[in-house]
């Protein structure tokens, strides 16, 4: 099947234990994370060959970040070391009616300062068949956006399948800049992945009769959003995750997939949230895995939704489930009964 290449920032994540707020915390848990890194770990867990590409500082924090991926079998040989710092994000877990919050401290990180001269994309893509990035990476800096474009062009020239999760982050850039940059990048994308708000935030394509903040989502309107995205960019597939937020602790989780002008809808899971960060990344990874294995579109969608459902029951950003556990949920084993 060849190798999957993911490209993005690998960050230091600092978070208070349990449900404490940052303002009351006297200690912080240390982890390493990043959207595309989360995808890489999930794919490695599923048994695929996957390589993560980034730049990290040449210090012990860079070492620790790389080791976090190496531990799960991700190929880290394409990661470069350079001047700069490691990006940091602080995460405060929400509960009930109090939402989770994220604070970024990413300015002048090693990957944000990286340039085209730092990466040989022909070499990186030598034995690869799939390239994945998200809208977070080009938001880091103008140089990072240029790097994403160079990577997409090289991947397209080599015939790789290119997937992109739009992943709009308002704390990194504004909607106008996101629209301009992502419009150019999406010309090269085969499979577009988005959540219930991304298309509106990035491209102004809104779902009628839906209110994301109130957790009211009209599935039919998102079918229209997927169709408009496909028409605008010529995507082969468009997948949209649908999170109905009852509260920070309880969500309904499902998705739709537009494939070859046919719409597929998934099972809807009521989730009692343990940790929602990384849920969308796990959906993307599940979809990539299923499509590389050759699942039919309905099975691929159900696998991706089930994988991301399970991730949201796990502490931390990485999805540490097996293919067998995902398939068990797809087949209807969702009671949560103890396995022994």
Short note summarizing the structure:
The protein has 340 residues and is of the alpha/beta class.
Describe the protein in words.
- The structure is a single chain.
- The protein is of the alpha/beta class.
- It is 34% helix and 23% strand.
- Strands 1, 4, 9, 10, 11, 12, 13, 14 and 15 form a nine-stranded mixed sheet that branches. It has a four-stranded mixed sheet with strand order 3-2-7-8. A two-stranded parallel sheet has the order 5-6.
- Strand 13 (250-259) and strand 14 form a beta hairpin.
- The protein starts with a strand and ends in a 10-residue tail after the last helix.
Instruction: State the CATH architecture.
Output: 3-Layer(aba) Sandwich
Q: How many strands?
A: 15
CATH class: Alpha Beta
- Could you list the spans in which at least 5 consecutive residues all have pLDDT below 50? none
Average of per-residue pLDDT values = 95
- Considering DSSP H and I runs of 4 or more, what fraction of the residues is helical? 25-40%
Please, how many helices?
11
User: What is the ordering of alpha helices and beta strands?
Assistant: EEEHEEHEEEHHEHEHEHHEEEEHHH
CATH topology: UDP-N-acetylmuramoyl-L-alanine:D-glutamate ligase
* Main pleated sheet: 9 strands, mixed
Amount of beta strand: 15-25%
Describe the global form: globular
* Class from helix and strand fractions: alpha/beta
Rg, alpha carbons:
19 Å
> How many domains, as an integer?
1
Distance between the termini: 34 Å
């Amino acid at each position: 099947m060849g190798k999957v290449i993911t490209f993005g920032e690998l960050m230091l994540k600092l978070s208070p234990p349990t449900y404490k707020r940052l303002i009351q915390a006297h200690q912080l848990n240390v982890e390493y994370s990043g959207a595309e890194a989360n995808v890489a770990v999930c794919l490695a867990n599923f048994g695929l060959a996957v390589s993560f590409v980034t730049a990290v500082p040449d210090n012990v924090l860079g070492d620790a970040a790389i080791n976090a991926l190496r531990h799960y079998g991700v190929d880290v040989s394409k990661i470069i070391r350079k001047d700069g710092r490691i990006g940091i994000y602080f995460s405060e877990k929400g509960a009930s009616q109090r939402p989770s919050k994220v604070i970024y401290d990413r300015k002048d990180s090693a990957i944000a300062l990286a340039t085209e001269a730092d990466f040989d994309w022909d070499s990186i893509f030598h034995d690869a068949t799939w390239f994945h990035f998200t809208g977070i990476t080009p938001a880091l800096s103008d140089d990072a956006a240029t790097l994403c474009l160079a990577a997409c062009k090289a991947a397209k020239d080599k015939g790789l399948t290119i997937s992109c999760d739009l992943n709009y982050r308002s704390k990194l850039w504004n909607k106008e800049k996101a629209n301009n940059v992502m419009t150019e990048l999406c010309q090269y994308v085969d499979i577009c992945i988005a959540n219930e708000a991304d298309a509106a935030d990035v491209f102004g394509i809104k779902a009628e009769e839906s209110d994301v903040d109130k957790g009211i989502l009209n599935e039919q309107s998102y079918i229209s959003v997927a169709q408009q995205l496909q028409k605008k960019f010529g995507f082969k597939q468009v997948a949209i995750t649908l999170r109905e937020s009852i509260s920070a602790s309880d969500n309904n989780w499902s998705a739709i997939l537009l494939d070859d002008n046919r719409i597929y809808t998934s099972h809807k899971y009521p989730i009692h949230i343990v940790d929602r960060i990384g849920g969308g990344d796990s959906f993307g990874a599940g979809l990539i895995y299923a499509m590389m294995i050759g699942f039919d579109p309905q099975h691929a969608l159900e696998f991706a939704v089930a994988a991301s459902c399970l991730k949201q029951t796990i502490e931390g950003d990485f999805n540490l489930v097996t293919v067998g556990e995902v398939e068990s949920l797809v087949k209807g084993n969702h009671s949560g009964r103890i396995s022994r």
